[in-house]
Amino acid sequence: MSTWNFRVALLAAATVMVLAGCTTAPEDATLASASAGLEQPDITVAAVPSTDLAGLYVAQDNGLFAQEGLHVTIKKIPGSQAVIAAQLKGQVDISGGAYVAYIAAQAAGARFRILAEASTLRPGTKVLVTAADSHITTVAGLVGKKIGINAPNSLGILLISALLQENGISPKKVDFVPDHQGFPAMPGHLQQGEWDAAFLAEPYVTKGEEDYGDQVLADLDQGAMMNFPIDGYVATQAWVEKHPKTAAAFVRAIEEGQAIAESDTNAVQAAMAVSDQLTPVVTAVMALPGFPTSPVDEERMQRTAEAMLQFGMLGPQYHTEVEQGTLVKSMIGPTP
């Protein structure tokens, strides 16, 4: 290369570097400025892997947390019950999962705050499935059988109990068996014959159908459980009081993620494909829940508490607290 050409190359490279620096510096400065006012810019969110929390994955993929100055690490868990102890010890900042476990913990004396809603039940999003070669073809056929669920004392028990009762069957006539690996492992375990039926959430309903030919025995979005509140984003009240600006930033990002998830199916499909390594065959047909975009709705939360009381997931000693609404009110504070 001639000396002149070499100098031209150097000048061009230097120009590119300067332009690149000019492009990224304002962005970095904006993020640094957003983080400056937060008590804790780096947070860990424990989440059950399902489409119910698509708003979280959409917010992450679209940089909505970063815009608020947050660096969010998502830790996958099998169910809400599995992370409550860690949250109370301060090992997890926020969790995304079913309200059932948190309402039970609140009644027992823990202090949690529901920061934002994540999802509500819609057709096909929570179902009971059987293996392709199962002889069980009706809900009545579940009597005396084992049903796999993703966690003990969970939403699955509540929804299935309601289904059984509406079909004239006592929930005590089935055996609920938790799978401590959660939804991702459950289609395979059903195939191996560990239970007679399984409670699944999307996208694992579709994965079970695609991988093993699982059959949907009953959609749980029916009767008294239609549009039932499923999951939310929860922190301890102590954490919220110590990190009010961080909590507020998280809520703002989640609300944007929820709005995108509710209006843009393609965004949900793309986010779930990344988070759970799903193929287009699954994401194109998986059912999606509702994604509430408003502040936490007390009436929706009250439905969960009353159903838990009805099916014995809250003891009779909590009857007054549930019926007066004070249990739910203790979990819903002012918007951070």
Structure report:
This protein has 336 residues and is of the alpha/beta class. It folds into three domains: 1-29; 42-117 and 231-281 and 314-329, 3-Layer(aba) Sandwich (D-Maltodextrin-Binding Protein, domain 2), CATH 3.40.190; 126-225, Periplasmic binding protein-like II (D-Maltodextrin-Binding Protein, domain 2). It is 45% helix and 15% strand. The protein is built from 15 helices and ten strands. It has a five-stranded mixed sheet with strand order 2-1-3-10-4, sandwiched between helices. Strand 6, helix 6 (155-166) and strand 7 form a beta-alpha-beta unit. Helix 2 (54-61) packs across helix 10 (244-263) and helix 2 packs across helix 11. The radius of gyration is 23 Å and the shape is globular.
Task: Kindly summarize this structure in a few lines.
This protein is α/β, with parallel strands linked by helices and 336 residues long. The protein is 45% helix and 15% strand.
What is the averaged pLDDT score?
A: 89
Largest sheet: 5 strands, mixed
Q: According to CATH, what is the topology of the largest domain?
A: D-Maltodextrin-Binding Protein, domain 2
Total beta strand runs: 10
> So what's the overall shape?
globular
The assigned structural class equals alpha/beta
How much helix is in the residues?
40-55%
Number of helices: 15
> What spatial order of strands do you see in the largest sheet?
2-1-3-10-4
The Cα radius of gyration reads 23 Å
CATH architecture heading of the largest domain: 3-Layer(aba) Sandwich
Domain unit count: 3
Query: What amount of the residues lies in strands?
Result: 15-25%
